[in-house]
Amino acid sequence: EKAGYEHFMLKEIYEQPKVIRDTLTPRLPMDQDDVYLDGINLEKEVLEKITRIYVIACGTAYYSGLIGKELIEKYARIPVIAEVASEFRYKDPILDENTLMIVVSQSGETADTLAALRMAKKAGAHVLGVVNAVGSSISREADDVLYTWAGPEIAVASTKAYSAQLCAMYLISMKISLVLGKLSTEEFRELRAALYQLPSQVEHILENANLIEAMAKKHVNMKNVFYIGRGLDYAVAMEGALKIKEIAYLHAEPYPAGELKHGPIALIEEGSLLMGLLGQESLFDKTVSNIKEVKARGASIMAIAMEGNKEVEQVAEDVIYIPRTHWSLVPLLENIPQQLFAYYIAKNLGHDIDKPRNLAKSVTVE
Ligand code: M6R
């Protein structure tokens, strides 16, 4: 059932072009300037009274929610709070009938996420679930469900579900902005065209996996790794670092690039690896100068950047280029090399990749 792949994780990484296509294309017809979300009620009357949106989830699902938050705020101009479910549920959050809560969950069974959903419903908020497992508790209890069509995810480390969740975030942010008249037809078409290119762009990255495998071999003895970025790149950094912790059992920390000098740079020494995420071109120079500061302290430097930004080679010894895309879709492409890098590091270390120690696929206890 691993279809010839050595691990489910690798198989699931390679399924991503299909998963992205399945999640996006039925909802984005080429001949109509609209997003069709399976009959979900995000119509004008509902959205006009929404004053606040929460995005609630755990782990990788939460990191996809962070991208959703940025995009909804950027395009629809509605305040969005993204929070991990285990924090949210023990606070006294402002929840009422003018609140929209988006809960994100692959399994649809995560205990804290389900508890947050129930709090929201009790307070009269509208709950939209972004769920992968059909018929799961969250899908049954949410007011509306947008399914991610990732198919069953077996490996504990989430890969294809994250990509599908990002697609859902793109669709939801586009829908909300369109309904509220905040996204021009021109911008919409530009985004749709870029979305349609994602599957083949992911394929292109996967075809060059051997380069990433070689980089993993080279860096397998690192003591620790810092993932840094700004804006959407920082949200992607969090997902990259989690994957390393989870399956490689190495100390990995995501940091907003500009925060390094406020403390963590003291940890940098020889044997440290820095993964610089440079996909956001408007922030490229800023992050490059942060990388220089780290390099001067003896760390090895890897970077992920968009094709065409060759200047990165002046600071990084190993560069992974992703195909050019719209700035808001960078996270999806940038994360594919991160998945492969974590996978090959863990493989070189001889770990049980599909069933990492101390972890369960679905966290149904608090
Ligand atoms: O099933 P869920 O999406 O609700 O699970 C949330 C997290 O437990 C999950 O994403 C976890 O962080 C993954 N193992 C990360 O790879």
TrEMBL record:
It is found in: Cytoplasm. Keywords: Aminotransferase, Cytoplasm, Glutamine amidotransferase, Repeat, Transferase. The active site is at K361. Its EC number is 2.6.1.16. Residues 42-182, 211-356 form the SIS domain. One of its GO terms (biological process) is UDP-N-acetylglucosamine metabolic process. One of its GO terms (molecular function) is carbohydrate derivative binding. It catalyses: D-fructose 6-phosphate + L-glutamine = D-glucosamine 6-phosphate + L-glutamate. One of its GO terms (cellular component) is cytosol. Homodimer. Catalyzes the first step in hexosamine metabolism, converting fructose-6P into glucosamine-6P using glutamine as a nitrogen source. This is Glutamine--fructose-6-phosphate aminotransferase [isomerizing]. It comes from Petrocella atlantisensis. The gene is glmS.
